[in-house]
Design a protein that fits this description.
Helix 6 packs parallel to helix 7 and helix 9 runs parallel beside helix 10. The strands form three sheets. This protein has a nine-stranded mixed beta sheet with strand order 17-16-19-14-13-12-1-15-18. The radius of gyration is 23 Å and the shape is globular. Strand 5 and strand 6 form a beta hairpin. The protein has 408 residues and is an alpha/beta fold. It has ten helices and 19 strands. The N terminus is likely disordered.
Length: 408
């Protein structure tokens, strides 16, 4: 009778969002056998967060608006994309550098709006003007003219954070400019200082390490490169090692045939963002901001994908630093943690179909408690809060969900 009473008390505590660290392993083991409890405890270990162990600086989370192929974002869609209080909280906008200077001004309204919300704007060129190309290759004799074209664009739109001179130059048969890593390096070495904005490169199709390393072997190009960027089509995020540059993932989408409201697909994206951050990367940029499969749909609604992105973008702001954290402490649970001053933000992806109790330990920071925000198949950025005592606590993660903890 006493054992049953203890079990029932712990059940009540857990499902009330208990943050106590005093639940014993024996009690947890007993709970897992209780016929009315669906909480998962299998292979659960503590997620250890060391806020004193600093990793990469985070630049943000964002998406693309490409006017050559899609109508511009509306005012309402810009707010929903970039507002950290009422929208997704994107802090990066990616745009296309047009081949015609007559189209430069069309980019400016959304660029200005994104900047107004504090977002960084990065611009990628798919092609140089045709007069500067032979087929799908940039003429070496046109390097200076192409740099002047990029610089003119930067001036026309009021300045961007960085420019990529080539989009997926290693994607053979794409229809846009192709170039070897050596060729991209040669252009940046010769003209990277004349493009009007800092250079991001080489932006390969599949974040190809060999391509990136070959590009960076050009010491002059490397010195003129602000940060390395690339896309993860066909590639699982991975750590590029000590390349001496911040790494941005500047384009990807998971499935264009599935609605942005498909919950399983949204959870796939959640894990992908986790993987990018856990690989030491500084930024994650989705493909189209507004698309049926994107974070905002064609009817201007924030989708489930958008709310999943918001679990990162709203709370992990540019300038936050990722800190050491147990990445996969329990079966189906993935954790990253970030710090800004004394504030700690923890993002947890729970892939399990059952409520999962996850314990945490903290060092290097002593919060009094957390605001908890979570998104699952039925809730969007739901909120509650809890206090903690000491350097350890535990919480319930709702089934198939993304949870963000913000210290207070």
């Amino acid at each position: 009778m006493k054992t049953k009473l203890i079990q029932l008390l712990v059940v009540a505590a857990l499902f009330a969002g208990c943050t106590k660290s005093t639940i014993s392993e024996n009690e947890i083991s007993g709970l897992s056998k209780h016929p009315d409890v669906t909480t998962s405890f299998a292979t659960t270990a503590t997620a250890a967060i060391d806020a004193g162990s600093l990793q990469q600086s985070i630049q943000g989370f964002g998406g693309a608006s490409i006017l050559a192929w899609e109508a511009d974002l509306t005012s309402d869609q810009r707010t929903k994309a970039f507002s950290a209080s009422s929208g997704i909280g994107m802090s990066i906008l990616r745009v296309m550098v047009p081949t015609s200077s007559g189209s430069f001004a069309a980019e400016k309204p959304t660029i200005d709006a994104a900047k107004g919300f504090g977002a960084k704007v990065v611009a990628t060129a798919w092609n140089a003007p045709s007069s500067m190309m032979t087929g799908i290759h940039l003429n070496t004799s046109s390097y200076a003219a192409y740099a002047a074209h990029l610089s003119s664009y930067n001036t026309a739109v009021g300045g961007v954070y960085a420019i990529s001179p080539f989009n997926e130059p290693n994607y053979t048969g794409s229809g846009w400019m192709e170039a070897t890593a050596t060729e991209v390096g040669n252009f940046v070495a010769a003209q990277g200082s004349n493009c009007g904005a800092p250079i991001m490169a080489p932006e390969p199709f599949n974040m190809d390490q060999t391509y990136i390393n070959s590009y960076l072997s050009n010491a002059t190009a490397k010195s003129k490169t602000s940060f390395v960027c690339g896309h993860i089509y066909g590639k699982t995020p991975y750590n590029l090692g000590s390349i001496g540059k911040s790494v941005w993932m500047t384009e990807h989408y998971t499935n264009s045939s599935i609605s942005g409201d498909d919950w399983n697909n949204a959870m796939t994206a959640a894990k992908e963002i986790h993987d990018c951050m856990n690989s030491g990367w500084a930024a994650y940029v989705w493909w189209y901001i507004r698309r049926s499969y994107g974070p905002i749909d064609e009817s201007s609604n924030i989708t489930k994908l958008g709310y999943v992105m918001a679990q990162y973008a709203r709370y992990v702001r540019p300038g936050y630093t990722k800190v050491s954290c147990t990445a996969n402490p329990s079966t189906g649970v993935y954790v990253t943690a970030y710090k800004s001053g004394t504030q700690l933000v923890v993002v947890i992806v729970n892939q399990n179909s059952a409520t999962t109790y996850q314990p945490f330990s903290l060092s290097g920071v002593t919060p009094a408690g957390f605001d908890r925000y979570y998104t699952n198949s039925s809730s969007n950025i739901a909120h509650n809060s809890f206090t903690i005592t000491g350097s350890s606590f535990g919480i319930n993660l709702t089934p198939s969900s993304v949870t963000t903890l913000v210290s207070n």
